[in-house]
Amino acid sequence: MVGIIIVTHYTMGEALIACAQHIMGRALPQLAQLAVSKSDDPEELVQRAQALIRELDDGSGVLLLTDIYGGTPSNIANRLIVPGKVEAVAGVNLPMLVRALTYGHQSLDIAVSKAITGGLEGVLYMLPSMQSEDKGV
């Protein structure tokens, strides 16, 4: 099973994990998070992330999901990439995470591809519904 580590600013990863567990309706032992704050030492974060990678990698590889490309979390994730073994995708959102979890039993390259498409397809412009009385505004 592909391991997944969410590397994000502050507690965003915790919230995503809680939401994913709610949606998936089960514990997600292949999922962990690394919270990054301004006061953290990047070298220490890299070491903590490497320990998480060792813990989650059962031989299937690890997918790192990070929030904003170019921020400290993505810079840390970038330092951890080992092509074919540890891959990273920036722009994490809940649809991306759920899709990655759903396809985590497949190969790492498929999990990466499904995470990206899940993230992209999860961003939609919403039109008002025909039931305009139920706006709640």
From TrEMBL:
It is found in: Cytoplasm. Pfam families: EIIA-man (PF03610). SUPFAM superfamilies: PTS system fructose IIA component-like. Keywords: Cytoplasm, Kinase, Phosphotransferase system, Sugar transport, Transferase, Transport. PROSITE patterns: PTS_EIIA_TYPE_4. Residues 1-123 form the PTS EIIA type-4 domain. InterPro entries: Bacterial_PTS_sugar_comp, PTS_EIIA_man-typ, PTS_EIIA_man-typ_sf, PTS_IIA_man. This is PTS fructose transporter subunit IIA.
